[in-house]
Amino acid sequence: MDNIRNVVIMGSGCAGHTAALYSARANLKPLVLEGHEPGGQLSLTTLVENFPGFPEGIQGPELIENMRKQAARFGAEYQHGHVVSADLSKRPFTLHFGKETIQTRTLIVASGASARWLGLPNEQALIGHGVSSCATCDGFFFSGKEIAVIGGGDSAMEEALFLTRFATKVTLIHRRDQFRASKIMLDRARHNGKIHFLTDTVVDDVLDASKKEVTALKLRNVKTGKVWELTASAMFLGIGHVPNAKMFAGQLDTDQDGYLKTTNYVFTRVPGVYACGDVQDRRYRQAITAAGTGCMAALEVEKLLEEEGR
Ligand code: NAP
């Protein structure tokens, strides 16, 4: 008996839990390192209506907790922490997280993607003081206030709709006049009397860092050049995500935006290292597709270890 793990799974979103379920049921005793956002994006969302099997929909946090319980029932182990660096140059692979080091024969990277920020001069100073990327976490604090939401995809629509529970007015600001959002989400937002759309508009800055609260957004119309200030008590971002793969720089291939490159769905260029879910999927990015690739990665691990006589 050695201390080398059969499989370590990085990340505890939909992909990670599904990989854990399958590898636990294959008796591989997977270790899941939960990452810095345990539960991933589903834990920050509200009603999930498009995961098959739930005709009335299910709350994201409940869905992800159920996945975790299901994997744990078959012996998956969970540990807090996220990998800061790794040596994938030889097997077993070495992973560093916190003060600990783990060795593993195979690795499933399911580290997902984290919210993207705009990079405004005062943005970072106001995170937690009215600037947020999570409506479900922070919306409640802005009851009776006017709120701005940035983005033109499903996340922005979902955030705007959710925030109408608290806000007197939600201004949805999008840099173009075409939307990536699905028709159903866009229609819902358009038909909500509390949501006002500002298109062809970008945010140049958020005020007021000196007061440690959001008071207004500096806006600019990209077609007319007009600049003005919009009064708002909060700015919620729904502008997409950045894949969490920096710890593998130089060891695994990425595309120009940092998504891990895979072949045959889940194979990285290092034998024994598989990637699944949002860290490698820039096209579909759905809970169900993340679960699907999590399953594939676990099946590949099982196959490889079996071929190696483990
Ligand atoms: P997304 O579809 O990539 O949309 C990101 C939006 O942010 C785009 O409108 C983009 O503008 C804008 N944006 C990006 N960078 C920006 C910047 N620097 N400044 C201003 N605007 C910027 O991302 P998402 O909305 O997070 O959705 C990701 C995936 O999850 C999608 O597949 C979506 O369908 C899915 N999702 C589904 C649901 C649901 O079904 N309930 C909910 C949430 C997410 P441009 O359009 O101009 O590029």
What this model shows, in words?
By secondary structure, the chain is of the alpha/beta class. The chain folds into two domains: 5-114 and 241-307, 3-Layer(bba) Sandwich (FAD/NAD(P)-binding domain), CATH 3.50.50; 117-237, 3-Layer(bba) Sandwich (FAD/NAD(P)-binding domain), CATH 3.50.50.60. The protein is built from seven helices and 19 strands. It has helices spanning 14-25, 60-73, 123-126, 135-138, 154-163, 183-190, 287-307; strands at residues 5-10, 31-33, 47-48, 58-59, 77-79, 85-87, 93-97, 100-109, 113-115, 131-132, 146-150, 169-173, 195-198, 201-207, 216-221, 227-231, 234-237, 241-243, 273-275. Strands 1, 2, 5, 6, 7, 8 and 19 form a seven-stranded mixed sheet that branches. Strands 10-17-11-12-13 form a five-stranded parallel sheet. A hairpin with a 5-residue loop joins strand 6 (85-87) and strand 7. Helix 1 (14-25) packs parallel to helix 7 (287-307). The radius of gyration is 21 Å and the shape is elongated. The structure holds NADP nicotinamide-adenine-dinucleotide phosphate. Residues 50, 118, 150-156, 158, 175-176, 180, 182, 238-240, 285 line the site of NADP nicotinamide-adenine-dinucleotide phosphate (NAP).
